[in-house]
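All the exercises in this workshop are built on plain-text protein records. A record pairs a protein's sequence with a compact description of its fold. Read left to right, the backbone structure tokens trace the chain's path through space. Once this layout is familiar, the rest of the handout is easier to follow. Here is such a record, shown just as it appears in the course material:
>
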Amino acid sequence: MLRAVVVLCVIASANLLVAPPGHAQTLELEPCRITAGPAYPSIKARCGNMLRPANPAAPDSPDITLRVAVVPALNLSPASDAVAPIAGGPGQSTVQFYASYQQAFEPLRRNRDILLVDQRGTGESSALDCDIDDELITGNYSADITRQVTEDCLAELPHDPRFFTTSIAVTDLEAVRVALGYSALNLYGISYGTRVAQHFARRYPGATRTVVLDGVVPPQVSLGPEIATESQRAVEQVFARCAADRACHERFPGVTAAFARLVTTLRDAPVVVSAPHPNTGRVEEVTFGTGEFAAAVRLLLYDPNTVALLPLLIHEAANGNWVPLTSQYQMTVVSLGEALSMGMHNAIMCSEDAPFYDRTTIDFTGLAASYIGPVQLEAIDTICSVWPAGPVDDEFKVPLATAIPVLLLSGDADPITPPRYAELAAVDLGNARHLIGKGQGHGQLGVGCMPELLEDFVATADLDALDASCLERAFVMPFFVDFSGPQP
């Protein structure tokens, strides 16, 4: 259950941070290969490491290592400004994120280098990783166990987690830009990465040429209190789509009621399911309760391809076959465990989100009525009660005000960063455009013609000239009526 709570959580004011005086650093790059993981093909790049002070305000603080990779442009005379993707999580490696979506970035690489910097605390940049004992994750949610596991995590960390906030991370990215001699950066941020991109543009406007915000986290919104209610909204939207789809409605006419019954059943008591582990194939007994159910459903909602499975998986579980939904939960745990540095995730959440919650505005009634319930917010409170908060720049929570061209991307079925979040982020943007994908989820990078649109935008920096009509033809996966797939 605790592992499920950790999955559900995957989402102080200080003076302006300044880098210590001194000469610009140099960074030597050597040929290397990067990859999204052991099962993925590798990509040619040039890599190097840069030492940075853990605390930029204290030049004598211990160094941390930043991992930097550059995937060279295809053009032998590339533009002087690079494309800089920034991964989400928080806690995901940007190098691995890029390697997972390499094809979507290929149009951008025609004339510009791709600059990849694993944000401090992630990937190979002094990662803040924590091990969680599997023996501690069974049974009902316990604040005491969560607190103990969090304290154990803190004790394992090789660096002081206070100095892994966004306000410090943007100084690292600027130091890398200067060291490599790029005139400016074209930022692409996904999810939490949109927060980083907005703050970099605030701190370094002269070093920012264009910005793409995909699945937008507005500065003034603290993630956490709305995760459960937004996810409930997304579930209801999926079932409404199913009801309006002839094949889905005929196959699963009572899926909304079945979903509600499953939630009630699991709140009464978990079920024990025998399911093959996605890595080993060995059949294991899994205690599948409300946390596991919520974690599986929540991650299914992120992508239209997995949304297409949701009515089928709910129907199967309601008829006694829990294995498909349990297997989905197991795959979620494995993938997130491999992709995220939980210590860095906690460092962000407990510095930039939890301290800013306004409990007078939290919809506690909606939380209680959602399929996730209040457990996710309670877990954040417990984790952050022992996790130290780090420095946050004074204007960090203020909407970005700039004339830099900013393209905002949303999916109207996004379960965590809905289109209204992008509108909140755009309130003071003087040169912005918002594109909303119909039927799309969290992240538009690989949807339809989006890679070519991004290339056009970065090439011209002209939002008005961008012809986005091709997005109207973007594919949305039809609902699966059985495990063979959608009806022809």
Observations:
- Residues 4 and 291 are 5 Å apart (CA to CA).
- The two ends are 39 Å apart (CA to CA).
- The first strand starts at residue 30 and ends at 34.
